[in-house]
Amino acid sequence: MCWLRKDYGDCKAQLSDLLADKDSCVAGFHVAPGLRRATKITAHGPIAAGSSHRAAGAAREKRRPDGMSADEWKQAAAERAILHVQSGMKIGLGTGSTAAKFVDLLGQKVRAGLDIVCVPTSDATRAQAAALGIKLTTLEDDPLLDLTVDGADELDSELRLIKGGGGALLREKIVAVASSRVIIIADHTKRVETLGAFPLPIEVVPFGRGSTERLIADMASDCGCDGSIVLRRAPDGSPFVTDNGNYIMDCHFSMIEDPEALDDALKLVPGVVDCGLFLGIADIGIIAGPMGVEILTSDDDAFEPED
Ligand code: 5RP
């Protein structure tokens, strides 16, 4: 099945073809073929410190030399992403502290009359969205979404990502791949030259974890990735369990020189459900930092709305 293949661009196109006959809501669904490259970088003006809606607790954060905190950069990125939302859209909601800021903004818009339905990528995001009065749906009822907005643990200049720091990588990938457009919002500390400083999360089924770990290590080593592989644990010391009932192995590879090769190799390991490499999935990156908001786009069709 196409879901197991690395080329999500083709996968999404196939999914669209399959469902287009059944579902007239796919108008506008577009995926550039093959692995998409980030082709355009736009720098926007500096963000005024304190100008965004500051989340509770932000004042306790360490201030940066530019007067802004990481929290405010995340907020600035979320505020830019909200410009892509229109009434009538079906929207995938990411997981994590940056995505949560987008969900908060969406909640404000819904209270003001915005008509949307959303698919959350985790139980935590579901609870947040429900509390804000955001209408929820499922991929069973709405298999194609217009837009997903999510955070990332790392992103490079080709909009390749590491995700899964919050343990939601599988649902995040399923929802993103079902979306016509994927926007990643992040503060500039997530932007890297080479992926891998952030430990790569791999979701594995609990059965046979020891053997799975050995195979992961062997396959990764063949791709030039060596380093410790650590079972993620909950605060009480028990294994961290994902919303899907699986475990997460955090792989400290430091540098992933060939993410595509590693992604392909890991998918051959039977106990691996998925890994946190998101390749050819993101369409737009919105990165906020001391120099302002930087926009990365994967192709010329990824529009940037006027403010
Ligand atoms: C969760 C994720 C998050 O998007 C990622 O961990 C970034 O989180 P944050 O915005 O809190 O830094 O992939 O699985």
Question: What are the key terms here?
Answer:
307 residues, 20% strand, globular, four-stranded antiparallel sheet, Alpha-Beta Plaits, Rossmann fold, 26% helix, binds ribulose-5-phosphate, alpha/beta, disordered N terminus
Outline the structure in words:
By secondary structure, this protein is an alpha/beta fold. The protein folds into two domains: 10-192 and 281-297, Rossmann fold (3-Layer(aba) Sandwich); 204-273, ACT domain (Alpha-Beta Plaits, 2-Layer Sandwich). It contains seven helices and 14 strands. It has helices at 8-20, 70-81, 97-111, 123-131, 169-177, 209-222, 259-266, and strands at 40-43, 90-93, 117-120, 145-150, 154-155, 161-162, 179-187, 200-204, 229-231, 247-251, 272-275, 277-278, 284-289, 292-297. The chain has a seven-stranded mixed β-sheet with strand order 1-14-13-7-4-2-3. Strands 9-10-8-11 form a four-stranded antiparallel β-sheet. Helix 2 packs across helix 3 (97-111). The longest helix is centred in the middle third of the chain and has 15 residues, at 97-111. Residues 1-37 and 48-61 have low confidence and may be disordered. It binds ribulose-5-phosphate. Ribulose-5-phosphate is lined by residues 94-99, 150-153, 163-169, 172. Ribulose-5-phosphate (5RP) binds at residues 94-99, 150-153, 163-169, 172.
